[in-house]
Amino acid sequence: MTVQAWNVLVLAAGRGPDDPMAKAYQVTHKCPVEIAGEPMLARVTRTLLSHPAVRSISVVIEKRELLEQVLGPLACQVEFLTPQESAARSALAAVTENPRFPWLITTGDHPLLTEDMITHFLAEAVGSGADLCVGLATAETILARFPKAKRTFLTFGRDRVSGCNLFALTSKRALSALTFWHHLEGVRKRPWRLIGAFGLHALLRFATGTLTLDSAFAVASRRLDLTARPVLMPFAEAAVDVDKPEDKELAERIFIERQSLPA
């Protein structure tokens, strides 16, 4: 069976001196911070390189020297890209420069990413026939595994979901989503303003609890003139990115658990 080849973009630019990880570990950039003895970005890159569906990997980060420092020998297997004014603009520039679809977008602070997660997400994205897919995990999935986890959940009807930093772009129609994303980055943690960007009707439905997850993606599809679909991830770890010291502690515990499992 032929495996579809994907380009991958890893967003790894820093968030400046006010980043909680930079403050906690006295570093200028969180990507070199080690999780179970290996830099976060190196873990993400190594996992991607080992997946048979990955055709190329581009990493957005401030300096080539930093990329080489963090990745070591792996650096020669990825393309270095300089950041734009936002993560969305960086993604748009990368995809516009190489408009060979499909594209998988993830982040450099996603050290728990596994081949199984990638396989599931890409298969669901291809099967959906959508131009754009977004990886999400339900609150039930996350809290069953991590009952004390502090996550930002968006509520759609009966569903509460959290992002997994996984995005699939299968056609150039998805580029409109990257442009729109740029304008939403400042409110991505503020549900009311996020939903309000899609119109008053969507906001009213969200306020009354009648905006379901599927209907939210239908609204987004109409607003962006594309087909967008959610991909629900059955892996709680897919929703764990390392934004704060407590996230690092959780990731470390998970790796200890993984190493103790029988082969």
What is the CATH topology classification name of the domain at 1-112? Spore Coat Polysaccharide Biosynthesis Protein SpsA, Chain A
Order of helices and strands: EHEEHEHEHEHEHEEHHHHEH
Look at the helices and sheets and give the structural class. Answer: alpha/beta
Q: Write the CATH architecture name of the domain at 1-112.
A: Alpha-Beta Complex
The radius of gyration over CA amounts to: 18 Å
Helix content: 40-55%
Compute the average pLDDT. 87
* CATH superfamily label of the domain at 1-112: Spore Coat Polysaccharide Biosynthesis Protein SpsA, Chain A
The stretches of 5 or more residues where confidence is low (pLDDT under 50) are 199-208
Principal-axes shape call: globular
Structure, described:
The chain has 263 residues and is of the alpha/beta class. It has a domain of 112 residues: Spore Coat Polysaccharide Biosynthesis Protein SpsA, Chain A (Alpha-Beta Complex), CATH 3.90.550. It is built from 11 helices and 10 strands. Strands 1, 4, 5, 6, 7, 8, 9 and 10 form an 8-stranded mixed β-sheet that branches. It has a two-stranded antiparallel ribbon with strand order 2-3. It starts with 5 loop residues before the first strand and ends with a helix. About 4% of the residues have low confidence.
